[in-house]
Amino acid sequence: MASKLYIPGPIQVSEKTFRAMCSPMIGHRSGDFKKLYGGIQPQLKELFGTAQPVFLSTSSAWGVMEGAVRNLVGSGKVLNCMCGAFSDKWLDVSKKCGKQAESLQVEWGQPIRGEQIREKLSQGGFEAITVIHNETSTGVMSPIGEICEVMREFPEVLLVVDSVSSFSVVPLPMDELGIDVLLTGSQKALAMPPGLALFSASEKAFARAEQVKGRGYYFDFIEFKKNQAEDMTPSTPSISHIYALRSKLEDIFNEGIANRHARHAELNEMVGSWALRNGFEFFAPEGFRSKSLTCVANNRNIDVAEFVKNLKERHGILIDGGYGKLKGKTFRISNMGDETRETIGELIAALDDSLPQ
Ligand SMILES: *Cc1c(COP(=O)(O)O)cnc(C)c1O
Questions:
Q1: Is 330 in the pocket of ligand 1 (CB under 6 A)?
Q2: Given 52, 158, 271, 314, which is the most exposed site by the fewest CB atoms within 10 A?
Q3: Which of 253, 274, 290 is the last residue of a domain?
Q4: pLDDT tens string 59-76
């Protein structure tokens, strides 16, 4: 039997979401498709906090992360803010796209601060910056309000924000914050199977993209915009995922967005209390801890591999034993998606039972 996933992505997918994916196939240029895609736009815009259209890309999040660089950066520089595995990789991606990429690197476990961005951008010549709101590898949430405040001093620099593991977990109103590209993926905070990415882009972002050469085709923002105007996607999308998304949006709006945020905060607190109760510390500094997962520092020096194994074998539960160079030094537990006080309660009982002595 498959384990229940408490790794920070992919996460557990509900039966309802899986059932929605089995809806009959339709043509992607048909009226039925336009109704499906057009029908979810209002809810998507509300969730993104934008008046702009929301686009669906049949790719994982990296497709749009690469696409953002290719669409928004011309001959100028891009600043990639780096504080963990995913944000670090964005620098490589920018370079592989042939862009002049610079890094703002902080130690893994630390957040990206507004002041650090100000210092870099003051050097001039930047066209865009990339920020990962919630660095899933370290469990650090960077202060997006503070960052957006600083970005107002640099109106010529476009802000790209990855919210893959924080989308719909905490408020992230794109227009109000002045974010130019906000993107997320299906398999983390949205609790769907992997394979779909969602994003929106500001007028400023489209104006830039119009000027940038070499945007390619598959992730061309202008193509997305043209097609979306007719409730379509540039190429054949994973229609099954869009059915799943419609079902997920139904769940989110039935619960209420504010209630969803509150539930994540409460469940995150439950996991955090478990860690403290057992003498652990957090990898992230206080005030910058993720609300969708907990990255526990292994200050007790337990055998993390044994802990992970016990959980899997005794309880059919999967947690993560630390990302990359943090393997064994940390472990990560997700509280994203459809978890409840009851399911997290069961998880905690299993954690207690599996912790090596
Ligand atoms: C998982 C993750 C990604 C990468 O997502 P893919 O679906 O593998 O492309 C990017 N950013 C963050 C913050 C993530 O957690």
A1: no
A2: 314
A3: 253
A4: 999 999 999 999 999 999
